[in-house]
Amino acid sequence: MIYISLLLIVILLIYTLVYISNNCLIIKKYNIKNKKIPNEFDGFKIVHISDVHSKIFGKNNEKVIQKINKINPDVVLMSGDIVDKREKNIDRFINMYKDIYLNYPVYYSIGNHERKLGYVKYKEYLEKLKKLGVHVIINGKEKLVKNKDEIVINALKFRENMQPKKLTLDRKNKYISYMYDKLKNIDSTKFNILIAHDPENFKLYKELGVDLVFSGHVHGGLIRFGKMCLLSPRRKFFPKYSYGKVEEDSTTIVTSSGMGNASIPIRMFNRPEIVEVILNK
After folding, report:
1. Which CATH code fits 2-280?
2. What is the DSSP string of 112-148?
3. 46-70: per-residue pLDDT in tens?
4. Is the predicted pLDDT of residue 164 greater than 60, yes or no?
5. What DSSP designation does 185 have?
6. Among residues 242, 272, 276, 277, which one has the least CA distance to residue 54?
């Protein structure tokens, strides 16, 4: 009898851990310091959302709405896989995020799951986002202006930010050239943000000369042990840029663990999150 009781306790603990790791949403906060951040953007608040995979938190997504309203950001950046490729009711899902789209400036870059919706549904989804005022950026850039100061938001769609499997020097040079062509004429005198779904290309993003990268895709490595993660969605063990803030040279990347799950429907020690970033001059 005692063994059965112990077994039940262990099962209950595992269930509780899995439930919390997959359903209890948190806010993760980072401060970014950079001398290129202009005066008008000192203290500028960014909410970063990634890899929702159509997951809903609370009735009518109220938990997400409440947390974002609590942050009251200046802008919301979405780095792809917000909708899952298996989503059958796009209108329902868009309506769940309507309060965000209507109340905050939203800049959206696509991930691999948006691309897998199928051509017709993909186009329909992006058009409906645009009608709500969402800035959908497909391989391009937009300026954010406050008084006379400005920063630049660049974005690469997923196919263009996928790293070749065998990155020889020749392929790397061609790839960087291709990415440069898509983002054309990055002004290094400005503070440049890049929204790019896949963080594993961070070294290539640095070549572009951007200052701050927002990524997701890796889902925090699915299972985390402290600062170490186990597995990326590409079935790659211990990916380097799996989560959190990493600074190299003059470029910083912020990688979100995301909010939902895709083909591997589980995460451990790795709670879903909304990322809050504050810019500091």
Report:
1. 3.60.21.10
2. HHHHTT-HHHHHHHHHHHHHTT-EE-SSEEEEEEETT
3. 999 999 999 999 998 999 999 999 9
4. no
5. -
6. 272
